[in-house]
Batch of 2 targets.
Target 1
Amino acid sequence: MSKPLERRLRALEGKRPDPDAPRTVLMTWGVPPGAVKPPVSVLSDGGALEWRRGPSESEDEFFARAEREAPRNAAGFAILVERLPAESLAAPDS
């Protein structure tokens, strides 16, 4: 292996993700092309758990709270699913 390639490989292998950093996947689907996505007000874990945004809570604060409270799998990942209101799923007027 060439020296430059060895150096690059060592540099890449030396980078480790922060083990304390939250690893959260936020899933949103069902927004038609051209539609404006409404503000997030409800998140779920894809199962029985659900989080509702408080009246004075910003979207960032809401995400942070749900991310903190969400259960994590053995690898440390949490999945949050955005629940969109039914009226937001309609295609935009043409």
Note: Helices lie at 3-14, 59-69.
Target 2
Amino acid sequence: MMNVFKKEYALFLLKNILYIQQNKEKPEIVKMYSDCIIAISGIEKLDEQTRVIVTDVYFKRYTWQEVMEKRFVSHTTIARCRKKALNAVMHEFETNRRIA
């Protein structure tokens, strides 16, 4: 069974696949989507609660208030999850930069 985060990521890519195909000659578009994949791989490594909240805020585009009501979490928890996700993404970019 596909977890919520992978399902939302798959939907995100499917929604944008035509755009990617139409603009694949543009290096900035290719870079943007490769960066998205790097960011997603960093977020995938986080705990379930953080992944779910990040998915709600950044992929489903819920407001913080909607997430607070839906997930029964505080504003501080959302902020903490956002910070964890940003740190994970930055770490993933740093790791990929060293490998490349």
Note: The mean pLDDT is 80.
